[in-house]
Amino acid sequence: TDLMEDSSSARELILKRRRLLEEWTAFRANVAAHKEQYGIVEVSHDNEDLEVIE
Amino acid sequence: MRPIMLKGHERSLTQVKYNKEGDLIFTVAKDKIASVWYSYNGERVGTYNGHQGTIWSIDVDSKSEFCLTGSADFSMKLWEVSTGRCLFTFDQDTSVRRVEFDPYDNRILAVTDKVMGFPGSIITYKINRDSPTQQDTTPLLKIDTKEGFEKVSVAGFSYLGKYIVAGHQDGTISKYDATTGALIGSVKAHEGLITDIQFSEDKTYFIISSKDKSASIYDVDNLKQLKRFEADAPMNSAAITPVKEFVVLGGGQEARDVTTTAANQGKFEARFYHKIFEDEIGRVKGHFGPLNYIAVHPSGSSYASGGEDGYVRVHTFEKSYYDFKYDVEVTAEAKAHAGEQ
User: Fold this and answer.
1) Could you tell me the fold of the domain covering B4-340?
2) Which of A11, A20, B17, B241 suits B131 as a labelling partner, its CA being 20 to 30 A distant?
3) Structure confidence at residue A49 (pLDDT)
4) Which Pfam families match (chain B) (predicted)?
């Protein structure tokens, strides 16, 4: 948090970003909590099944 | 990594799409021929020949079995992906501006143009997958542009194929029950034409781009604006990246305005923004004209841009792309990780 002491504008920016991240995380958590209603199927992003073409 | 160039179209690209696995890229242009390419090397696998005019839109089903095109020749065509055979033609009264499969591949939608006594409509059909050459031409729904609304430019299905969300010429977005066609709500989202709509992976929110030089994210349930991205040129397309919390915007000065400006001032770059913090974080150059469409690989490993210049460029993301994080993200992840211990 050294950055927070640099200036008040830098501090405000960090707080704003923290708030935006929390809002987004809450929005996504709410969607995830109602997965069945949304018909969300887990999508895997590991590349285990991926055929690598050289 | 050097981008792959897909060279084959003779006119401006209008839409580009990856299939669900991301091994194929489907492209349409003003040259009347749809194409399919291998995404890993840019080799053209085949073409879909039959339209008599500009093809405005293409979509492929989740099994990569059928694809669908909408054209200025007043028709929408269903094709067999693997053979290039035209299976069926749905004739319309006006140009077809946008086509899409629903998430279950058994319904399709078409956005038809508003011209000369035709109101412009969102039309849905049931797709007969068992005998694809036999289709019922009676629409399931025909949602005509309502009194007080300007024409629809783009539309797509939400999660579960439950709603249809449309973007209008004046920047309004509207939401309909995809079963009854009833208008559920609308909101003025932008000051100019809505040029593109692309949904998140789970289809619970979507991004729209506009000629008003911006793009925004709205949630499906409340039609509430979640994010807004400001650009310095009209935007033609916007995509959401899986894996990373970014969005990619494409656009540029209109062709008629470009002759008066130097090529390097046309702003023909793909622009990356942080989806949560709304800041522009990077640009990728390459096209010699406006970017008309942006598609992101379903696993988030590359993106494809279709240009007014007639080229498709496929860029594979490098390590720095995956590593990029804001300090607050790093802190939040560390905190979450500590909490799990």
Assistant:
1) Methylamine Dehydrogenase; Chain H (2.130.10)
2) B17
3) 54
4) EIF3I
Other C-beta atoms closer than 10 Å to the C-beta of A28 total: 15
What b-and-e string marks burial along B62-79, b requiring 16 or more CB atoms within 10 Å of the CB? eebebbbbbbbbbbbbbb
Per the CB < 8 A criterion, the answer to whether B232 and B287 are in contact is no
Does B204 touch chain A if contact means CB atoms closer than 8 Å? Answer: yes
Of B113, B109, B55, nearest in space to B86 by CA: B55
Q: Is the pLDDT of residue B341 over 70?
A: no
Instruction: Please report the sign of the dihedral spanned by the C-alpha atoms of residue A45, residue A47, residue A48, residue A50.
Output: positive
Q: Mean per-residue pLDDT for B141-157?
A: 95
Q: Rounded distance, CA B110 to CA B157, Å?
A: 11
| Closest CB to B40 among A20, A45, A53 | A53
Residue B170 neighbours by CB under 8 Å, 6+ apart: B150, B188, B192, B193
**Token pair 């709205």 is at which residue?**
B218
Q: What per-residue confidence (pLDDT) applies to A53?
A: 58
Task: Report pLDDT digits (tens) over B94-131.
Answer: 999 999 999 999 999 999 999 888 999 999 999 999 99
Measured between CB atoms, does A33 come within 8 Å of chain B?
A: no
Contacts of B319 (CB under 8 A, 6+ apart): none
For residue A31, the chain B residues in CB contact (below 8 A) are: 202, 204
The pair of three-digit structure tokens given for residue B229, joined into one six-digit string: 């991205």
Supply B103's token pair. 């998430």
Q: Give how far Cα B20 sits from Cα of B17, B55, B77, B144, Å.
A: 9, 21, 20, 31
User: Is the Cβ pair A14, B328 closer than 8 Å?
Assistant: yes
For tokens 């309909």, what's the residue?
A: B176
What is the rounded (10 degree) CA torsion for B191, B194, B195, B198? 130
Residues 6+ apart with CB under 8 A from B309: B12, B287, B288, B289
